[in-house]
Design brief:
about 160 residues, Thiol Ester Dehydrase, Chain A, about 15% helix, alpha+beta, six-stranded antiparallel β-sheet, single chain, elongated, about 35% strand
Length: about 160
């Protein structure tokens, strides 16, 4: 609950934040930022197929997928990667106005994901590299499924003001 003294102040949308913003130097290696878990449905896969224009039958044709050794159509890898978007977590809210850019990303797809799987994405700060008036934050990204299997692992880098 906020201090009742704020009730007399005019509301300023510029001061509205979900979490208190922090400076680059207030971030710590080892901090973990989790995204909410999400169970994928056929609707998610269809929406991503529409947006990505990836119409390969491995993603929607049950018999095609089975013919090539898959138990079910395979969720688009880039859709799984999208669950590691920093905005799916509170991380960019902690960055506040010090965020400059998303520099790079990499990932390895380790296990197939299917409709009905529940994904658990997280970002862990692994490196903080100050560079004068800016700094680079490196995060390890992971996505686990409901069976505790690591389905995606990778890295993000962000450039921040110091």
């Amino acid at each position: 609950m906020e201090n009742s003294n704020t009730e007399n102040l005019p509301f300023d949308p510029g001061d509205f934040s979900i979490v208190p913003a922090r400076s680059f130097d207030e971030l710590s290696v080892g901090e973990v930022f989790r995204a909410p878990s999400r169970t994928l449905t056929d609707a998610h896969a269809s929406a991503f197929q529409t947006v990505s224009c990836d119409n390969h039958p491995i993603h929607y044709d049950v018999e095609y997928a089975k013919r090539y050794g898959h138990e079910a159509p395979v969720v688009h890898g880039l859709q799984v990667l999208a669950f590691t978007a920093p905005g799916a977590t509170l991380l960019p809210h902690y960055f506040g106005n010090i965020f400059i850019s998303f520099l790079e990303l990499s990932c390895h797809f380790l296990k197939e994901v299917h409709s009905g799987d529940t994904l658990y994405p997280s970002l862990t700060i692994t490196d903080l590299n100050p560079q004068g008036e800016t700094g680079v934050v490196t995060t390890k990204v992971t996505v686990y499924n409901q069976k505790s299997e690591l389905v995606l692992e990778g890295q993000h880098k962000y450039l921040l003001k110091r």
